[in-house]
Amino acid sequence: MQIIQEEKLLGRFRYLLDNVAEPTDLVLSWDNVSAGQRKGCLAVAATDKEGLLTILSGLLTAYGIGIHSAEILPVVDERQPSQAKILDLLDLNWQDKEFTKKDLENFTDDLKHYNAKLVKDGIEPVRDEISELVAARFAAQTAAQEQMLPVEIEIDNDSVETDTLLHIQSRDTPGFLFAFSNALSLLAINVVRATIHTDGNLVQDIFHVRDMHGRKIIDQDKLFELRFVCALIKQFAYLLPHSSNPGQAIRQFRDFTLQFLPTENRASELSSIHSVETLQMLAEVMGVSRFLWEDFLRMQHENLFPLVQDRSEIEHDFDKQTLQKLLNERLKTETSLDKRVGLLNQVKDREMFRIDLRHITRLSNDTQFAEELSDLADVIVDATADLCHTQLDSRFGHPLVEERPCPWAILAAGKFGGREMGFASDLELLFVYGGAGHTSGPKTVDNSAYFENFVRTFLKTLQTRKEGIFEIDLRLRPFGDKGTLACSLKAFQNYFSPDGQAEPFERMAMVKLRAIAGDEQLCREALNARDRFVYSGEPFDVGNLLHLRQRMVSELTDKHRINVKYSPGMLVDIEFYLQALQIKHGAEDLAVRKTNSMEALNELLEAGVIDTEQAESLSRAYRCFRRTIDALRAVRGNAKDLVLPDQTTPDFKYLARRLDFEDAQSLSNEINWCRNYCDDLLEKL
Fold first, then answer.
1. What is the pLDDT of residue 637?
2. pTM of the entire predicted model
3. Domains in the chain, start-ordered, CATH in brackets?
């Protein structure tokens, strides 16, 4: 009966198939469509090729067209037996509106265009373009709040001699056929025939599939992978509206599938991933951050997967003491120095991922995120220093000053010093030691050589996987790149003094100096030297600041593009403005000597240096710029690329979505307001 039915269909649409001869040929026919209707029929004939189903299903999703029922039939032309053809017959419904003649024309043109592009360029570039079109559709949907979709999957290897049959029954999910055809391509599986039928909200799909050699699938591992993909892709497509960038999430889901399938203990992990919270989290991470997702896939999948398996793993914020205890307990499990260094970096990476994940999934706000990253960095720097001393003391003994232990200190500056860290933040550090002397042996060296070795060992011990992310920056040390990696307290005091050799810009930078690790007394002495230098009461050199700011603009920005940090009126202007006010008033008012910008703003307001309206406007602009920078770094994984995407591009739209703006124009308006407010800040000093 089925064969007779198929023969009737092929006979009815033979006129379409007869017009298909070359790979680029694609003909289609619309039927039962008329003005004022929201349903119709579509017949498509083309040469059979990998990716055609992806294109057709993707365009249907992008146009808001649902599939009520469908038959996808392979055709062998006796006149051209080597050229397989395909006939797709679809009963469709427009989900949002009545169709128009223009809609049909546009869809037809797009389908033909992408079929030709598929022949010319292959599936990969076409898939990316179609993914962006599908993503726009997902982005317009409301995120699902229901629990997991029930999905029934039956794999039948008995009914058809040549094919493996997949019977899938579930609630209808927009975009499933597109996501499903994408996922099957990862498994090197082809859909050779399909029947789709929708009854209300329930869809029943039957797919005839074969491997890339045209054989049915009998390998048990392959069958497991097939069942896993069928279940997971259904849920994932359903939850894609949770993602800030669904197109990126679709692409990164493919990477996840490739990485996940070969892992051990797949059965247990498969069951754990069947929760709405886990999949929502995956969709959010995939759609927000490229570099964070790469961490998940390529760095420590076996350690990081539990964080997305169990949401309770990321619901708790750990204070510094808890992090310190957690790290110490891990380090105690190993006695080998090399293994302890490995554990240190493992804990760092895992906790950084957890903190990032908390922020991406909105379990922590901007302030909490910065504090959690800063606490982690404090703990890691302290532990790294201990491991470095252990390594060096076995070679050189302890550094001594007048036969007493030589104190040492590590101080932080920049965002780390201000406890304002974000995605891809680096660690600006200064290393100071007590003074001249020598080590106790076995190999005796001067203290200067010991601490130079100490810093070099520190740089090797604290490993960074990507430029800018927890990368050590030592440029604020006395004499910058020309100076020693560590300096004595006396050298520090001489350089950072009213009569020292420090540049005017270093006076501003030192506002954020904060003690991290080492001898408490030495830390106090270093910070006292900082206070005498920064808050000396000497007039602030506004002219030098304006000159420095102009150099930044000319050397670090493109006048045709907006750099959120360095362009005129952006973040640096706020930071410089606040630091200049702190320097001006900090000599008499100790309360304004804060390393954190927003805490300094509050103290300047309390002191009457700025009024309430100014404080609110500065806070609004600062938060806008910081959140935008974090969002850009989260997506790009690059601490230096802070240029806004063009406001007409999808990237800007996804940026607005990530930042919770209603649309791209709203984000643009907010950035323009903040920039206009801050444009002349420094001239008011």
1. 60
2. 0.75
3. 2-282 (no CATH), 364-534 (3.30.460.10), 542-684 (1.20.120.330)
